[in-house]
Design brief:
The protein is mainly beta. It has a single domain, classed as 5 Propeller (Tachylectin-2, Chain A), CATH 2.115.10.20. The strands form five sheets. Strands 9, 10, 11, 12 and 13 form a five-stranded antiparallel β-sheet that branches.
């Protein structure tokens, strides 16, 4: 019987196709996992406050614009620190009818199933100060307000109908509040601009400040170098207090810190941890931060604003995230600004 060249040819082809298919099925080089990137999203935003509410990460920033245009807050949420959803105008001055400009530095906390959003408004001026206008009654109202909602994206309503803190105490301008719950359940509010920082105890319903044993509403806790933007967190039983120094409108802006044994200090400045790095052509004027501890871990992050290079405007600030790391003795390592940001950190399902 003569050989069957056709069969041989088909076998060869099938073998070749098998080799091709086998080669095609081999996985290629693994793509690196996605990172958040910096900035986290497009647009000019500053003073970002990060928190975890209802199983998502939330960031509430200031809209970085001229004072008279700062009439609302957007918010951003994420399941993993990488993919962010924008929630437009979660709060504006249609809801806060005493606010007419300079709505700044929101701070959100969850309590009893509701979200409370603290904020500054109107850039209140001290009577007798260089920008105080005795003939403009409208400008005499302002300070720190509180809004409340059933969900972090709103809708919010004004809790008080007026500022919670609407006067000057210890010469601190009522802006840049940070709300913190201690391990014993006490709620503290830290705030202050113009180089002064106060702390007070919030009533359980967030409608007032509880006077101290001395009858004073607030205690001045200003550390050396403080300008604005206080933040407090606990790690390994120690209280870390962070704040911003320098000028918010230029590249001298930076973050410094102290460590204390309790929520009211004393806070003695240890050093600067975030600032313009002249050796890295990434950004300048980094500051006004918040801090995140990934739930159930000892992994920490700093969320802050910085100025792109070249910086073409006073209000050109963007929101970024990078790692916050500690030395063996508990001090904070200098923070490295990056383009990459951080790896995905999905929240565990509750």
């Amino acid at each position: 019987m003569p050989p069957a060249p056709t069969m041989l040819c088909l076998a060869t082809v099938c073998c070749a196709l098998g080799c091709i298919a086998s080669t095609a099925a081999q996985p290629g080089p693994e793509e690196p996992p996605p990172t958040s990137g910096n900035p986290l999203w497009e647009g000019w935003y500053a003073d970002p406050e990060i928190c975890v509410i209802d199983g998502r990460y939330w960031i509430f920033p200031t809209t970085s614009a001229r004072y008279d245009d700062q009439l609302f807050f957007d918010a951003f949420s994420s399941p993993d620190l990488v993919t962010w959803t924008k929630h437009e105008r979660v709060l504006d001055n249609d809801t806060i009818d005493w606010a007419y400009r300079a709505m700044w530095a929101p701070c959100a906390v969850e309590k009893d199933g509701k979200t409370y959003l603290f904020f500054g408004a109107n850039d209140l001026q001290r009577p007798g100060g260089p920008l105080y206008d005795p003939n403009d009654p409208k400008s005499h109202t302002g300070g720190i307000g509180v809004a409340v909602a059933d969900a972090p994206e709103g809708p919010y309503e004004d809790l008080l109908g007026e500022p919670l803190i609407g006067d000057f105490h210890h010469d601190a301008q009522p802006i840049d509040q940070f709300v913190f719950q201690d391990t014993d359940g006490t709620w503290y509010i830290y705030y202050g601009g113009w180089g002064q920082c106060n702390v007070g105890i919030l009533a359980d319903d967030f409608r007032s400040i509880v006077p101290g044993d001395d009858g004073e509403l607030f205690q001045n806790i200003t550390p050396d170098g403080y300008v604005e933007g206080p933040v407090l967190f606990i790690r390994n039983g120690k209280y870390y207090f962070l704040w911003s120094e320098g000028g918010w409108g230029n590249d001298s802006y930076r973050v410094a810190y102290a460590i204390a044994d309790g929520p009211t200090g004393p806070f003695e400045r240890i050093g600067t941890i975030l600032q313009t790095d002249r050796n890295v052509d990434i950004a300048t004027g980094a500051g006004h931060n918040s801090v995140l501890n990934a739930p159930g871990t000892d992994d920490w992050y700093i969320v802050y604003h910085r100025r792109p290079i070249p910086n073409e405007g006073r209000d050109h600030r963007v929101t970024c995230i990078d790692k916050l790391e500690f030395n063996a003795d508990g001090t904070i390592k200098p923070i490295v600004m990056t383009w990459e940001g951080v790896d995905a950190r999905p929240l565990e399902a509750e």
